[in-house]
Design brief:
Length: 344
């Protein structure tokens, strides 16, 4: 055995290890994510969700969710290194009981209407395409007074909070929290490019609006598609705002909605923030490239897919489509490490 190997062996019991053996993988020349691209076709996922509806109640499950696990991160409840995503089902008459946690959550409504989520005493009715926020450490419960299944995408910063070992959680005192404010109050206060004269930030670093209705987002995108230049990479893309800061609606997650016009053939891009997509309407194709590998995803309504960090992606759409997406971009930006490249 040479002196190097002898050194490694003798110091290992002392919990010492040589940097020079791992230096290159610690500081790669560019991001080297273990995540892989993945597509979940709604046609394939939906039957499993409905079977989950027969297998367990929302109340017993607490949250009846099928986790979208990155195929390269099985067992970690993660769709990227920092983000969690899942599809949640609530059936008529069910309640998902009140609790709170330091993890922030977003909901993007996929299918069905009439379910509600209650945040801090205010209920919001869910409609397809609505983007709803549960701020960190606010009590939240879900219920459903309608007559058909409701499914939504949950996006949470679970892996990030786990990484920081900063998670706390507790159950609410009652199953459903008491309603203390009329539905629509927070949207009226903060969602019209106005704010209370003596306002505070009721949810700290998180947006005071917790429901961003689809009809408004869609109208903006449609108008811009008609009246403004279409971006060669993104089509027509807008980011959701915290109106009190101009920044992302949550400290850990940014959300976006974009419309690709009919006949769109997008140019390729890559960014450090891995992103999760929910197809709202229409069809298209995502082409994702990394090294020598190429993934081609033909997507349609309610499909979900993930574009990992620093993978090159481009979109095409023959008949047009609307995409919702979220990523951990605000954290990259806060740390000054966000990078984005628009390729030709
Ligand atoms: C949670 O509270 C919800 O409130 C959904 O709907 C998914 C995943 C892990 C931990 C908490 C919800 C969750 C979650």
């Amino acid at each position: 055995m040479n002196i190097r190997e002898q050194l490694y062996r003798d110091m290992a019991p002392h919990h010492l290890t040589p940097l020079w053996e791992v230096l290159h993988s610690l500081v790669p020349q560019q991001p080297a994510t273990p995540c892989v691209p993945a597509l979940w076709k709604y046609d394939e996922v939906r039957p499993f969700l409905m079977r989950a509806g027969e297998a367990i109640t929302a109340e017993e499950a607490v949250r009846r969710v099928l986790i979208l696990e990155n195929p390269a991160l099985r067992g970690q409840s993660a769709i990227t290194q920092s983000l969690y995503a899942g599809l949640q089902l609530i059936l008529p008459g069910e309640v998902a009981p009140s609790h709170r946690h330091t993890q922030s959550a977003l909901r993007f409504i996929v299918e069905g209407s009439g379910a509600y989520t209650a945040v801090d005493g205010e209920r919001t009715t869910m409609r397809p395409g609505d983007f709803i926020i549960t701020p960190s450490w606010t009590f939240h419960d879900h219920g459903h007074d309608g007559d058909a299944p409701v499914v939504w995408l949950d996006g949470l910063d679970i892996p990030m909070i786990r990484f920081f070992d900063a998670g706390f959680a507790e159950n609410g005192a009652s199953k459903s929290q008491a309603v203390s404010r009329a539905e629509g109050t927070s949207l009226a206060r903060y969602g019209h490019n106005m704010a209370p004269v003596r306002h505070d930030a009721p949810f700290g670093k998180t947006s005071p609006i917790f429901s961003y209705p689809y009809e408004r987002s869609r109208e903006a995108l449609e108008r811009l598609e008609r009246d403004a230049p279409v971006d060669a990479w993104d089509g027509v893309k807008l980011r959701y705002l915290n109106p009190l800061t101009g920044g992302a609606p949550m400290p850990t997650m940014a959300t976006f909605m974009q419309k690709l016009p009919a006949g769109f053939v997008g140019k390729p891009w890559r960014q450090t923030d891995g992103a999760v997509y929910s197809v709202v309407e229409g069809e298209g194709e995502a082409v994702i490239e990394h090294g020598a590998q190429t993934w081609r995803y033909a997507f349609g309504p309610h499909d979900h897919f993930v574009v990992p960090s620093w993978h090159t992606a481009r979109f095409t759409s023959e008949r047009g489509c609307v995409l919702f997406s979220f990523s951990d971009r605000p954290v990259h930006q806060a740390l000054g490490i966000h990078q984005e490249e628009r390729l030709s």
